[in-house]
């Protein structure tokens, strides 16, 4: 795994957004390429500026827990991104908010379009120990 890394994360389904959700967000648009483990992603600021374009491969191995995946990211320029967009894919859009608690940094994803109403919180960890020690927020 020279270029891939293990990603440790936990996700939580939320009924509502936290009352103190920040006003700033990024718009994340993903295209999942059918029949593959690949995702094309574009991230835009609330003002419409492109923050990132990337191609991601993400998968779990049979021996890993559901909290761990192997991830590889390729950061793309506009021409590379536009070429890969011609492959199509199933689109998912969400507003992503950075949310800090006393103990950790989470992201809150508020989905749009066909997944409208879905709200997820996600937190990522550097190691197994910090993942084990994580205390779930009240919300």
Short description:
The protein is mostly beta strands.
List low-confidence stretches.
none
How many strands in all?
8
| N-to-C order of helices and strands | EEEEEHEEEH
Query: Helical region count?
Result: 2
Terminus-to-terminus distance: 36 Å
> How many whole angstroms does the radius of gyration measure?
16 Å
- Major sheet: size, sense and barrel closure? 8 strands, antiparallel, barrel
Helix-strand makeup class: mainly beta
Let me know the average pLDDT. Answer: 91
The dominant shape is: globular
Proportion of helical residues = 10-25%
Report the β-strand fraction as a percent range: over 45%
Trace the largest sheet across and list its strands. Answer: 1-5-4-3-2-6-7-8
Structure description:
With 139 residues, the chain is mainly beta. The protein is built from 2 helices and 8 strands; from the N terminus they run E-E-E-E-E-H-E-E-E-H. The chain is globular. It starts with a strand and ends in a 6-residue tail after the last helix.
Fold blueprint:
Blueprint (H helix, E strand, L loop, with lengths): L4 E9 L12 E7 L5 E8 L4 E10 L8 E8 L2 H8 L4 E11 L4 E7 L7 E7 L2 H6 L6
Antiparallel strand pairs: 1-5, 1-8, 2-3, 2-6, 3-4, 4-5, 6-7, 7-8
